[in-house]
Structures are given as structure tokens and as C-alpha cells.
Amino acid sequence: MTDVVPMTSPIRAVITTCEVNENHGTGVAVKHIVGSTPNVLSIRSMDLYGGNHDFGQVSVRLTHRDRSQYEAVQNTVTALAGHNVRQIYCVPYVPDDLVTAIAVHDVYKAPLAAHIMDDQNICTPNIPDDLMGEFLAKCSLVLVTCPELRRAYETKFGVRCSVLPSLVADHLISTFQPTRESTCGASSVGALLGSISSPSCFDRLCATISGAQVQLDWYNGSVHAFDDSKYRSLNDDPHSAQQMGIRPCGLLPEQQLAETLKGYSYL
């Protein structure tokens, strides 16, 4: 599915799992890193935000649905007909992302860069070893978000990784010593930022909150992307969420979020 007429000039393909927008951390990070890059072809594997996508001059949703490697290549060639891809930047999270990246790389002979923001192979084995190994072997550059991911992927796959942490705009960073007094409730109330990777992690978080007898205000968490009933209850039944010790606070713009977080005694 393409949103606009394909470009024939050299373009850069950016491959993500879902829509690039301000509603989730990966979308914000991708915009920070390559948002000013001209002539971007944005390829995503699925929609998780109702098609809310505001990135790239061309947008394509491409799903392979258990096709063979040959069929995936043909599917990619058909979807990208008329494009002239010269660079590829991929943020892998589901197998389809890697299959697409490999196919685009093989068809266009374009250099491929990987940016592993969330591990989906080592601690969370959602991407098979053979697929991840083939993908990384074709990469000219592998970026990870922290030293722990670098060590893990270098050790397992024998590839060189470089650390590129998540970026924050300079004007959002405080230059003064924050007060220790909380203005957002009791000192036991803290702030939780971003998404939780799995239901099991959510369960462990709830157990920790209960044992510590604290409450967390949750900002910018994409809870609707999960099927687990506990995640659904956070949206559908705020009272049940607060019984878990978590208060969903929705999505805030970066500037407002930065100001709000100053009122918490811990994050």
C-alpha cells in the first residue's frame, strides 16, 4: 500500500515495524535520527496506531505473511516498483522487518544499517537466530542503544556494534539541581516512562510496586499494543490499574512531559 506516487530519484529506505509518529518511543527516536533526511521511503510491517503515520515522502506497508524467501523478494520488488533505493536504515523488531531489509538489500545492492533499539533475539527470542544472523551479516553498520546490547550481540553474532543512545533535544534537559520535594503527590509516587516489552515484565513490575508500596504514574506507554488482559484493563478500567499501583497518564508532548517530570521525586 503506497500513499503517494513513487519517486524515481535516489531514495533512502527506512524500515520499521509500525507507523512512525509521536505516540511511541521508536517513532520519536526515528524522527530524531533521520527525520531531516530528504527523499525517504518509509516501509512498515503493520499498523498499530490506526494508520497514523507522518514520516517519509513515500509510505509503504509491506507484509510477507510466511512467504518463502523467493516470494518475499518478489513481493518486495512488486511493492517498490519504480523506486531507486540507495541506502537502507532498519529498526528490527519482528521477523518481517528483517525479511524486508534483506530483500531490499539484495535487490538494490544498497548498504544496510541496523539500529537495534529493542532486543527481540537474545533475551526475548521472537526473531530466529538464522534470520538475525543473515540480517546482521549483510549490515555495513550495526547500532545499538546501550553497552549491554553491544556486548550481547557482538558475543553471539560476531559483528561489530556501535552504541547510539536515545536522543533528547537540548532544550528539554534541565541545567539546575532539581528539588527533592515532590509536587506530584506523596514521596512514594514516581513516574514511569515508555512501553513495557512483555506481559511477564509487566507482572514483575506490578509485584515490585506492590512489595515496595509505591505508586507509578505512567506516561507515554503504548499499552494498547498488547493482548494481555492486564494491559487492556489499564485502558478500560483505570480503577483496576490503580489497584496495581499504576496510574495511566496518557501521552504528553515532549515539552509538557519534561516540565511534568520535574515534579516527581524519582523516575
Question: How does this model look, in words?
Answer:
With about 270 residues, the protein is of the alpha/beta class. The protein has two domains: about 10-165, Rossmann fold, CATH 3.40.50; about 170-260, no CATH class. It has helices spanning about 25-35, 70-80, 95-110, 130-135, 145-155, 200-210, 230-235, 240-245, 255-260, and strands spanning about 10-15, 40-45, 60, 85-90, 110-115, 140-145, 160-165, 190-195, 215-220, 245-250. The protein has a seven-stranded parallel β-sheet. Strands 8-9-10 form a three-stranded parallel β-sheet. Helix 2 crosses helix 3. It is globular and about 60 Å long. The N and C termini lie far apart (about 40 Å). Residues about 1-5 and about 225-230 have low confidence and may be disordered.
List keywords for this structure.
267 residues, alpha/beta, Rossmann fold, 2 domains, 9 helices, 34% helix, globular
